Input
Amino acid sequence: MNIQWFPGHMAKTRRQIEEKLKLIDVVVEILDARIPVSSQNPDISEMTKGKPRVAVLNKADLADETVTKQWVSFYKQNNVEVTLADCAKGRGINESVAAVKRALAEKLSNDSEKGMNRAIKILVAGVPNVGKSSYINRLSGNRRAAVGDRPGVTRGQQWIRLKNGIELLDTPGILWPKFEDETVGLHLAFTGSIKDEIIDTELLACKLAEFLNQNYRELFCARYKLENTEGLQGFELVELLGRKRGFVVSGGEIDLLRASNILLDEFRAGKIGRISLEKPEDLEVSVQ
Output
């Protein structure tokens, strides 16, 4: 499966970020705690190489707690400041500010010795629908950034000045031109960072059902009252789910599209349970 997704506004945003990099002190990248690798934009990492970085694992309330602890250890071992957050509810926001100051400790100390009190300029980055605008709104204390439950809500750059000597550069969520790794594309699609029209909904649901059945079978079966699912393929699982939910159409066939939408919606909302799609030991990853 070859997934390509690079609208014009994303290319424009990349150019604008490159133009403003010299003003930036630190990069705060909002990541999805369920997919820390797939939601890390390699283009942002490359563009901002050498800048101090803070990783905010958002939607931590939806991720597997045990796996999230592994990710926190992983980032710390790679000398990256990391915090957990639920930006929709405002949890973990203040901790990220403390992490920014730790990442800039040397610079802040040098400025203080010189009698300088300049604002900390932060680039807030993240892929679409990862919670970046919710993070900024919580941090600024008001609705300064557009918020939505779909990718592509924020469409223009804006500087936001906070009361505590911090200035944020908000940018639209951007993806990179092409997903070389199919798994990355699938993970972004599972969590809603790619518009649903890009990948066939039924195919996506089948892939997700297979993952859940292999890795979180107890939660998956409990949610949909399924039994004896070992070894079943994705199509069979979605069909079984639809039958259990009563999505039967004329001729006794199952409405697979309806069943697929239910599975994706309930996964994204955390109704199946706390699930992580990526673990540090599963992938050969590095923190840029």
